[in-house]
Amino acid sequence: MAYQDHIIEMGQLIKSKNGTWDGINAESVARMRLQNRFKTGLEIARYTADIMRKDMAAYDADSANYTQSLGCWHGFIGQQKMIAIKKHFGTTDRKYLYLSGWMVAALRSDFGPLPDQSMHEKTSVPALIEELYTFLRQADARELGGLFRDLDAARAAGDKAKEEKLLDAVDNFQTHVVPIIADIDAGFGNAEATYLLAKKMIEAGACALQIENQVSDEKQCGHQDGKVTVPHEDFLQKVRACRYAFLELGVENGIIVTRTDSLGAGLTKQIAVSNAPGDLGDQYNSFLDCEEITPENANNGDVVLNRNGKLLRPKRLPSNLFQFREGTGEDRCVLDSITSLQNGADLLWIETEKPHVSQIAGMMDRIREVIPNAKLVYNNSPSFNWTLNFRQQVFDAYKAAGKDVSAYDRDKLMSVDYDGTELAAEADERIRTFQADGAKRAGIFHHLITLPTYHTAALSTDNLAKEYFGAAGMLGYVLGVQRQEIRQGIACVKHQNMSGSDIGDDHKEYFAGEAALKAGGVHNTMGQFA
C-alpha cells in the first residue's frame, strides 16, 4: 500500500472513533506501518521464497544471474552487510544471507565454542534467524525514518519538488529483508526432530533450508575427516519432513537445498535396505568395500550381502562403521544429487575438497544429463587455501601446456616471493572470476562464503588491538576505525542512530507531542558526524 493510502485509511479509522482517537496522527501511523512491513517470520519466509524462485528462473535463462551471500553470525553483522550492499550497489537484488551451522556452534552456543558436530542447541538456529530479521527490519525502519525526516524538512521549506521526490522514494523503498539460506545440519535427530526444527526455522523467517546426508549423531564439518553418510531413504525422509513443514505453514514455495558430503565421506553407519537388484538401496550398497567369501570362511557376526549369486562381506571397521571403496566419491555424489532432485529437493550442494571449476562441472554435467536444470549452491569456503589452490592450478596448466615452470616450487607457491609473478597474477584473476566461471560452466546458482564474518571480526580486532595497546594509543582507533568510518560513509559511525535512538525520538513525539524529551538534541555528540 502506498504511503498516502495508509494515511487515508488511518485517517478514516481515527475519524470513525468519534473523537476518542483524536490524539492519534494518521501520518504517524502510516510511517510506523511502513517501517514495520513484515509482521511475522512467516510473512518473511513467503516473501523471500518468491524472491528465490524468481532468481532461480532468471538464472535458468542466463547464468550471469547467479546469486551470492555471506555467512553472518549475528543480527548486527547481517544488518551492516545489507546496509553496505544498498550503499554501494543501490539494490539488494540477488544478494542473500547465509546462516552457518559452523558459526552457530562456534559463536552462539551456551556451551561456548564448539566444533561443527551438531552439539549446539538446536534452538539457537531459529533464534539466530529471528535475530537476523529483527536487525534487517530495524535497518528498514532507520532508513525510512531518515526519509520521513527529510520529507518534513522539505515541507517546512516549501520545496514541493523535493517533497514529491521523497514521497516517490518512500513508495519505492527496497527492503533490507532478503532470503536466508539456513543450515539445519543433518536434521538434529530423526525425521520427526528434523520436521520440528524445520518448523521453528520457517516460523522465524527461513525460506531455504540446507540439509546434509551425514548421520546426525556423528556429523562433521564438511572440510574435516571422519564424515559418515546415511542411505538415501534415510536422508529422503528428512527431505520430506522439511517439505511437510513448509507446506503445513503455508510456505508453498519453500526451498530445500540438499547437501552431499560423499566426496569426502568414506564411511557409512548402515547398510541400505534393498528389495530388488538395482534399486536405490542396492546402488548405495554397491559402493561398499567388500570381499567375496564362502560359507566356509565366514566369521561369526559377519554381515553378508548377496549380489549376483555371490556372497560379499563389507569391510567393517572397529568403530562398527562400513567403508566405501576408494575412488567412488564422485559417483556417490552424482547419485546423491540426482536422487535428491527426484525426491523433492530444489537445489544441490556438493561439498568439495578444493575450489576447482572443472571438477565441479564434471559432476554437474553428469547430473544435468538426468536433471537438465539442476542448480548448485556452492561453498566458497575459507577452509580452502584459495591462494595456494589457484596458484597450483595455474602451475599445472602451465606445465601441461609445456611452459617453463622451473622458477616455481609447486609446494611453496603460497610464498610472498611469488606475489609479483605472472603465475600469481593469473591465479588472482581466476579467483576473481571464479564465481562467474562457476555459474556459467558448473551450474552454480548461488555462491556463498560460509564463515567470512568470523574471520573479518578476528582480523579487524587483531589490527585494532595491535595499534591501540601499542605506541599509537588512541590514534590507533582514530586512524584505523573512526576516520575510515567518516570518510567511507559507514552508517555505524553514528552509533546512537544505528541503535535506534532517532526512531525512539520519533515515537516519543508521536506519543507525547511537544512534551517529548528527545535524545537527539543539540547536545547529542552524534551531531559531530553530521
Calculate the terminal CA-CA distance, rounded to whole Å: 33 Å
Number of strands: 14
Beta-strand percent range: 5-15%
Instruction: Count up the helices.
Output: 19
Radius of gyration from the CA trace?
Answer: 28 Å
Helix content: 40-55%
Q: Unreliable runs, pLDDT <50, ≥5 residues?
A: none
Q: Order the strands across the largest sheet as they lie in space.
A: 1-2-3-4-6-12-13-14
**Which structural class fits the helix and strand makeup?**
alpha/beta
The residue-averaged pLDDT reads 94
Categorize the overall geometry: globular
Largest sheet: 8 strands, parallel, barrel
Spell out the key features of this protein.
14 strands; 530 residues; single chain; three-stranded mixed sheet; eight-stranded parallel barrel; globular; 11% strand
Gist of the model:
The chain is of the alpha/beta class and 530 residues long. The protein is 48% helix and 11% strand.
